[in-house]
Amino acid sequence: MNTIAVPVARNRPAGALARRVLQPGRIGLYVFLLTAATFFLLPLYIMVVTSLKPMEEIRLGQLFSLPLAPTLEAWSTAWHSACTGLECSGLRVGFWNSVLITVPSVLLSILLGAINGYALAFWPVRWAGALFGVLVFGSFVPYQVVMYPLVRGFALVGLFASLPGVVLIHTLFGMPVMTLLFRNYFSSLPVELFKAARIDGGGFWRIFFMLMLPMALPIAVVALILQVTAIWNDYILGLVFAGRDFLPMTVQLNNIINTTTGERAYNVNMAATILTSLVPLAVYLVSGRWFVRGIAAGAVKG
After folding, report:
1. Quick one: 148 and 112 in the same domain?
2. Residue 271 maps to a domain
3. Where does the pLDDT of residue 135 fall: very low under 50, low under 70, confident under 90, or very high at 90 and above?
4. 261 pLDDT tier (thresholds 50, 70, 90)
């Protein structure tokens, strides 16, 4: 008896064929993403190519063209010898001033925000709800509203126009948001962990440093990115509270761009702008995955 072999169709995952065919919605999504990426990357491209051109090429007006004779002279000038007012020492002085301002401000604001959030989430603090409401309200108060009282108060205690003064002001303005982030994160953790630590004899500081703070690494990275970006990019607080000796990089960048006499060196201006933005950009590139993980782990919960 002859048998006819019937081919058996292989089991294919559902939707495998559909994935091979581009749907109109997927095509539209790709177009939108490419358009958005071009929109955001085009200014960066113009800045980079302009910073690599000598002024002779810039005068030709070919904004999008690649440099014919690329040079890093503008970058060296921006870093070493660009005039930031009466002094022509480049951005390197402002860079180290920004480091001196950013590092302690970020560490203090994150530490104090973590302590406040931990206390508000687990410990029966009297008037905790009212205090938390005041802190949240403080995060929406514009700097300009309280600028003059702060200037007068810092001047009375001898902190105005000093490095400790500008560090303190950044710490104070960062505490409301940091407290909100850590309080919401700690509220999402199981309260049984805290109760077990209390039964084992743990006190306020021991539980915080040995249990809660190590578990808060994801939200700490979120706080780090937010604070580094906000403090490094700040202009108004550094201009008002830092004094002449500790002007941050953003203030000196403004001086380079707006105090040029004679021919305006666009290549130097572009190089100085890119140099000023390198630190926040590096922080985002290195910690971007942790930022998303921290947000998903509880930054918007509670």
Report:
1. yes
2. no
3. confident
4. low
